[in-house]
Design a protein that fits this description.
Strand order of the largest sheet: 3-4-12-9-10-11
Radius of gyration: 22 Å
Distance between the termini: 60 Å
Amino acid sequence: NFTPKLDSVAMEVSRKDSELLQAKTYAHDAEPGLVQANQVKHQVKGPSFELRQNIAPSTHVKPILNAKEWVQEALQKLERDSARSSDTHLLKLHRINIFRQNDLDLYLKDESTHPSGSLKHRLAKSLFVFGLCNGWIGPTTPIIEASSGSTAVSEAYFASLLGLRFIAVMPKTTSQAKIDMIKFYFGECHLVEKASDVYLASEQLAQDLSGHFMNQFKYASQATDWQGEGNMAASIFRQMSMEPYPVPEWIVCGAGTGGTSATISRYATLKNFKTQVCVADPESSVFYHYWKTGDTNLKSTTGSRIEGIGRPRVEKSFNRESISEMIHVKDNYSVAAMHVLESIIGKKVGPSTGTNFYAMLLLSARMIEAGKKGSLVGILCDSGERYINTYYNKDWLAANNFDLEEPKREIQEFLSSGKPLPTWEAANLN
């Protein structure tokens, strides 16, 4: 019995390379970087990994576990990982004069500080717990997910923690930074032409590999524990408890699966808070139209340009009845808002946070017009560092027909003088 020590991992992307990589099935919790000798081999397609190992004897090798024991240990690993993490910060936007003048407090729940870098860290853990407890995930089960990026990064993190193979099925337009993060956690990326192709491709991979399709779009609202005190909604209300207006008038989020909005709304109702939930939706997404019409057959042939939110079809995890309001935000204004927000908080944010922030500004404008005081909370979904080569790159913005000059000016004029912001009714789906 011995434990190979991982001195370094050199990753080289190659479409042609294919080699055997031993799965890290019984990775040590106490010593990150160690992998067990009793591992299951599988074929890796895509990136090529060079593992330079310094093999040394070890007197501390865990015994081979049966399937039930492995599941119990996997659940313990997930809980230990959560115990090592502190709560994410609630940022107050205290430097904006128009809000101070009208006695409005705006906050952002900064989910970018999770170990895997986004609010999808919470969902990914919940999906793993859900799969483990339902008997769908075992010690050699390949994990497959349909994801535009952040969920895949977070699931790759947990798959690596548990020593499981992970494959993300995503549109080819996904940012290179997110692809690199998935590979950093030993994940594999299966790219498809259109966003609508990810579902069938994921199902086929799971069938071919005898794996488990996590299916965030089906199980997000089921897997998340919305009644407990460990979810994001509970965290927000705890952190707001000492603020001047502790119960927010609005909590604003986007929707990829719909799990976040469902969790917040259900928890607020359970605890008898008057808080309303607003979902901000980008162009080319069907969610806004579904919320208005209730038509579950809606489809869009154009994928969302705001990475991480907006869907081309109605997802089963999206609960329209729990949502108080939806706001349609044009893509230019989402991206402009993320740039303006950086100048306010001194931190780059992702485009979905820009969508949320613009919706928060529209809601705050309504409250000002009605003479209403109070607080609003939005979700800071992930860091803008993942989008340096895309949404923060002038050449990329121009090539993808993003014109930010007028939207930025209008947002800045509202923040300085209260000049009304434009609103829109969503265009018909393509």
